[in-house]
Amino acid sequence: xxxxxxxxxxxxxxxxxxxxxxxxxxxxxxxxxxxxxxxxxxxxxxxxxxxxxxxxxxxxxxxxxxxxxxxxxxxxxxxxxxxxxxxxxxxxxxxxxxxxxxxxxxxxxxxxxxxxxxxxxxxxxxxxxxxxxxxxxxxxxxxxxxxxxxxxxxxxxxxxxxxxxxxxxxxxxxxxxxxxxx
Length: 182
Description:
The chain has 182 residues and is of the alpha/beta class. It has helices at 31-40, 62-79, 96-111, 130-143, 172-181; strands spanning 15-19, 25-30, 44-49, 56-60, 85-90, 115-121, 148-157, 160-167.
């Protein structure tokens, strides 16, 4: 959680820039004097910025401050967006209904904000017709144009052809490059 910060007697510097409990700056004070002020007011002396010159210390209730810091970190972790790389596997000779079902899965993943790796698996003589896989992946890219964009163009890796789609619309720089090459 929060890293341990020096408080009260653990502060090992001679002088600190002191900020009182209301947030007003007292100024550069001897550490012993700052500790005395903290005891008189029933607060802790907490070193909030140890790398400053001189280090900055505050008078505050350490337990309450630490609890608030932990709650803020917990809230930040909740709001952090986690994207996963989902995987969909297809065969080059896929029927229309199966294609639509797989397309629905890809669409749902993209709408949830995940990236999708679409893999076409080739077996035996299908390896001689890799253009079928390329056409299928390009068709998927076209069908999902408003929801996601092709982040990684179709490429062969062993007996599999892979393409990665990302959610959202294509970045402006990539759109300009694609229109220039077309």
